[in-house]
Specification:
Elements lengths: L5 E5 L4 H12 L3 E5 L8 H10 L4 E3 L6 H10 L5 E4 L6 H6 L1 H19 L6 E7 L23 H19 L4 E7 L1 E3 L18 H10 L5 E4 L11 E2 L1 E3 H17 L6 E6 L5 E2 H12 L5 E4 L8 E2 L4 H7 L7 H15 L3
Parallel strand pairs: 1-2, 1-4, 2-3, 4-5, 5-6, 6-11, 7-10, 8-13, 9-14
Antiparallel strand pairs: 9-12
Length: 343
């Protein structure tokens, strides 16, 4: 790659953002993180430094504050790209707090686009989600699958966010964007210096499993065992967060190198395989030797029966493929939990 490229990562101290920052720095990018620390910790900066030997530039502010966003992008008008993670992300919480999700996820995106997209060299990677497909009729899910009515306000913010970006690309041909629709990121960096660090009760399966295994939680809640699947529990495509991070770098490099493609595109990011909740629990027990007590509860609002990706488009165009196994991801998540639990 020619020269040092400067890239902003919003939400860069979060789970996926921190791993992507590491992947970017490993590829020679200069990273600037924007994070309001509402769902992350400043300590993650040290974790990134310990892994890469480089501490990214850090700015703490809320992307909903339009004046600060404009000031930042005016002062940093030579950026090579932005990867936008900053958003509230829990499906269940979004059902309970819809207005909070619409305000946080959409206002921040609009402010970012207003301040950044006018630059003719603007490149944006948007953190989207497979939730935009709802319960897909056909599995595995391709990028051509219909976008269905969202099952949750969180999913709706991702649908609307994609539409906002696509409309911006239509009127600004110099602005290029890719939406990455990822399935279920899990795991941690093998160094155990960064990982998933939920504040309060975990909303995702793997941190709930690891917190149960280490004794922070009495038992794991399995939401629904009456789905039309082989064991009655919901099926998801679980992708190692490091594979996911590397896909963001591949997508950004595509935007920086290829001037012939359309200025808006979407890619699914997953492994192409689906595993049920019970299969993941048993795999964790197998990979760590830890027993996980669990209780079956009713289905959660907003959850779909099954979702796993057709990744052939990303494999072909981004030259990227998930290469780490479910057992590797689960072992790394457990290693992260062990090394970051204060007894």
């Amino acid at each position: 790659m020619m020269g040092k490229k400067r890239v902003v990562v919003t939400g860069g101290l979060g789970y996926i953002g921190s791993h992507t920052t590491v992947a970017l720095q490993d590829r020679g990018f200069e990273v600037i993180i924007i994070d309001d620390l509402s769902n992350s910790s400043i300590d993650v900066l040290d974790g990134i430094y310990k892994i890469t030997g480089k501490k990214p530039e850090f700015h703490q502010f809320d992307l909903k504050d339009n004046s600060i966003v404009k000031k930042f992008f005016k002062e940093n008008n030579d950026l090579d790209g932005v990867i936008h993670f900053a958003a509230s992300k829990a499906v269940g919480e979004s059902v309970q707090k819809p207005l909070q999700y619409y305000e946080n996820n959409l206002f921040s995106l609009i402010n970012l686009l207003e301040a950044y997209s006018y630059n003719p060299a603007s490149r944006l990677i948007f953190s989207s989600s497979c939730t935009v497909y709802g319960q897909a009729i056909e599995l595995p899910i391709t990028e051509k699958a219909p976008i269905k009515k969202a099952e949750s306000p969180y999913g709706n913010t991702k649908q609307i966010g994609e539409e906002i970006i696509k409309d911006t690309c239509l009127v600004n041909k110099g602005f290029k964007a890719i939406a990455l629709r990822y399935f279920n990121p899990i795991g941690a960096h093998e160094s155990a210096k960064i990982g998933e660090l939920p504040i309060g009760t975990p909303q995702n399966l793997i941190p709930f499993i690891t917190q149960t295994a280490i004794g922070k939680r009495e038992q794991l809640a399995v939401f629904g065992n009456d789905y039309p699947t082989k064991d009655g529990t919901a099926i998801r495509d679980y992708i190692h967060v490091r594979d996911l991070a590397e896909a963001h770098v591949a997508a950004l490099e595509l935007l920086l190198q290829d001037d012939k493609q359309d200025n808006y595109d979407v890619f699914n990011l997953g492994t192409g395989k689906g595993q049920s909740v019970l299969e993941v629990i048993h795999a964790f027990e197998e990979s760590t030797g830890q027993r996980i007590p669990y209780e079956i509860k009713g289905r959660r609002n907003g959850d779909v029966t099954a979702a796993y990706a057709d990744t052939s488009k990303a494999n072909s165009i981004l030259k990227w493929k998930a290469k780490r196994s479910l057992l590797q991801a689960l072992s790394s998540a457990w290693n992260w939990e062990i090394n970051n639990t204060i007894v």
